[in-house]
Amino acid sequence: MKTASANFDSTLRIAGPIAVGVILLILWQVLCTVKEVPIYLFPKPTDIWASFTANLPSLLRALSVTLMVTLQAFVVAVVVGTAIAFVFNQSRLIEACLFPYAIILQVTPIVAISPLIIILVKDTRLALTVCAAIVALFPIISNTTLGLRSVDPGLVNLFRANKASRLQTLMRLRIPSALPYFFAGLRISSGLALIGAVVAEFVAGTGGMGSGLAYEILQAGFQLDIPLMFAALGLITLVGIALFVVMSALSNWAIGSWHESHAEERGHG
Amino acid sequence: MAPLALSRKVENDMALAPETPVIDVRSAEKTFPNGFRGLEPVDLRVEPGEFLTLIGPSGCGKSTLLGMMTNLLKPSAGEMRWWGGSFDQTGTTGKSLSIVFQDATLMPWATIQANVRLPLDLARTPRKEADERVRQALEKVGLAGFEDRLPRQLSGGMRMRVSIARSLVTEPNLLLMDEPFGALDEFTRNKLDSDLLDLWREKGLSIVFVTHSIYEAVFLSTRVVVMAARPGRISKIIDIDAPWPRDEAFRGSPRFAALCAELSRELREASEKSGTMAQGAKP
To answer: Which residue of A has its CA nearest to B106?
Structure first.
């Protein structure tokens, strides 16, 4: 009985959004056709698909560039952000002194500082990675710091009563307790890394072989090739969704068996 | 005040020589940093092999007293001795204690096996030996076969059993238990009480136990410390001289009813003696 309803749930979770998407696409196609909307204002899904297949090689090349920048920035953000969170956790003083600067990092719009970074960092690809990493950094710092602190006080007492060392408490208690927060941070941060990569490229506006999806969109805009714009935009969205799905799967794999946030997947096990 | 009737263990021990108390509370008191008077100076000796229960209204300082016995709270004045020595010496002289908290306090990410093994892991016991002791401890509390489960897959009573297994795995001489069964239904609680008594008798443990329940205190204890609130202090110490072993039949006996009535009267007197100036706000 429980498995039947769980099966129904997971089917709904996949089939539901797909059904909505198909209905919206059909509606879009029909409306554009009936109202005779010009292709340079709002192309039909079939136009976009045609443009996508026609420009596949250049789109895929741009996709790989954007994807590389995003992933590299994300990895840097995770490594640096986790390291900073650990330092914060070791000393209240350091946290109190430095956390405001982490917030400054967060509230400064990346669009505003990316020109500066692009000037300072000669290599464009590296500059893009730096911009994207800055955007992706904060959720990792703040979530991991919060997680390392959110420890069951009863368990802290238990560890103290058993004369656990600082390192033992960190490894066996603080890090496992922080994992759910860390993974929530990963999910937010991966999306922000993509946004950062795209936004920075808009500002940098590089040309040539090394350009990413943002540059494709800019170029298509200049040439009024609206279907191509939509095709590139669709690819960016797909990357974002893929990142989210991968992060969710990772979280489920790591903490799904015990953490409350995954109780629904377990069918209230 | 030498108890008139003691458990058989204490009786045997007393026949040989007066023993060092397991815990010696010497005028220990607690005033919290915010000025709240948690506990007036208390003198109390926990004798080897006894089952001592602390009972009283909320704010009477029973958890504070137990907290000082676990060394998680430090007395603001006075002194605590464990087997005649300091707390740091426990565990190194062959005498050790374990704590059982109000909640099971299990690590939700770790299997039952890993949860019970934690104290041994922290003490760096070799894995093979540790696993064997975990197996024995889980068997003792009736949870053999549940090694690979996670805490969330167990009922509240079973989680509490895991918590007890974890406290037994280090082979302690003393168990300090802070309302361990308070959140359980009465049926489960009675069962765990009986099983705890079996463990106590079998292992020759000393136990200090905090509870709200008069029935539980009478059923389990050799001595009951009745406490009064505002400020927290000891009101009276009562010997529970009912014979051993105690089983379900004891719960229905006139002796049990009489002891409950006596303890109930003492508690009422204690709460009448309790001050009312503060609402018992805890820090």
So the answer is: A155
